[in-house]
């Protein structure tokens, strides 16, 4: 019948109107993020509060936008020391490849999504500064780690 | 009271109704569309966003009144007036009740339609005077569309007018008193159902509502003819659009839905006293349906729009007018 499509469309919008709004007044009310939402990259820490990053640089190599950079130096005992872990938030496209590439589960896509800033400097973050990198061997054998300490 | 003062007061009342309508309708459009889109709509200014339009009016009033350097000075300035004044004129013959009316015109319906047919001239002037391609396209589209849909609109109005035997809106409403077969209200929408559908479609097109908003065409023409306007000149065009919506809905209520009459209680003095409120309620319901259509249907193409009017709507409305005239003569309703 001619016009049936129009009536069907009207029924759809009327159903929508009956459903009520699914949006909220944003800054006052917030909807929970989906579990797998990908926002700013952040570090994971072990139970002692030390970063799990081993400074293996795989994330740096993997990043398609070249926005991660790690400055590494050697400690006296031959371990790695992270002078800085730099993350250019403003150029990040939240693809999550760095997180997928990380063999030590040391970084994650956090749920921090309110990233706008009036200061350009806030868009370049130093995620780690002057900390010892985790050692996979040390993490594997707590006894040796204790002995090292 | 001197007749001049009386006329002045009536005109002022019409202006007040128009302005209040404009403010209420803009908020209503936003809220209705938001509802259809599962959104909240304006919520910030005032409780439930009720003061949003007031804030918008202040914004429009304080904005710079800008005229592009290449624009035709007089056409550009005159166009908003020529768009606004006819839509205001169309209020004057309307009757909110037997006693609440701005004027008592015996050619009321004709006057409304005649005033409405002046609007495309103003829109065309705005389009041409702005000296911009989008404006011109919008203006030409508006002119073509409104001329095409005026004819079915007028023909669809003929049915109720023939039934009532008058062009006076009050006479048409009063002819819809009583019931058919004891229960059905004598509203002209029932015998004139086809006429009403034609009226609704043509009315939607005359007010440039969304399936037919060729002249504005937000996504292609960036508000079309109103493109170069700012501040209150734009405000007038915007207001005219909403007041046209009210006029078309009020005309539809008058012609097809018994105006201010409450069904089954159209001789009850209380119901008659509530007439203006009933009339406004019916009119706003009509507007809500127009907004519902607006929130549902996508815009048609220009050729589809014109072909639909010239090849379908006008022949159907002509045939319907002849048919209803013959049946009316035969049955003597």
Summary?
The complex is a heterodimer of chains A (149) and B (333). With 149 residues, chain A is α+β, with helices and mostly antiparallel strands.
Q: Number of helical segments of chain A?
A: 5
The sequence of SSEs of chain A as H and E is HEHEEHEEHH
H and E order of chain B? HHHHHHHEEHHHHHH
Tally of structural domains of chain A: 1
The helix-and-strand class of chain B reads mainly alpha
Mean pLDDT of chain B: 85
Task: For the record, give the distance between the C-alpha atoms at the N and C termini of chain A, rounded to a whole number.
Answer: 83 Å
Low-confidence stretches of chain A: none
Question: What is the count of helical runs of chain B?
Answer: 13
Helix residue percentage of chain B? 55-70%
Uncertain regions of chain B: pLDDT < 50 for 5+ in a row? none
Q: Which pair of chains has the greatest number of interface residues, and how are they split between the two chains?
A: A-B, 15 and 14 residues
Question: Which class of secondary structure composition applies to the elements of chain A?
Answer: alpha+beta
Biggest sheet of chain B, strands in spatial order?
A: 1-2
CATH topology title of chain A? Alpha-Beta Plaits
Question: What CATH first level of chain A would be assigned?
Answer: Alpha Beta
* Overall tally of structural domains of chain B: 2
- Give the overall form of chain A: elongated
Under the CATH scheme, the architecture of chain A is 2-Layer Sandwich
Overview of this protein structure:
The complex is a heterodimer of chains A (149) and B (333). Chain A is of the alpha+beta class and 149 residues long. Chain A has five helices and five strands. In chain A, strands 2-3-5 form a three-stranded antiparallel β-sheet. Chain A has a two-stranded antiparallel ribbon with strand order 1-4. The longest helix of chain A is centred in the first third of the chain and has 16 residues, at 4-19. Chain B has a two-stranded antiparallel sheet with strand order 1-2. In chain B, helix 3 (73-89) runs antiparallel to helix 5. The mean pLDDT of chain B is 85. Classes of the chains: A alpha+beta (149), B mainly alpha (333).
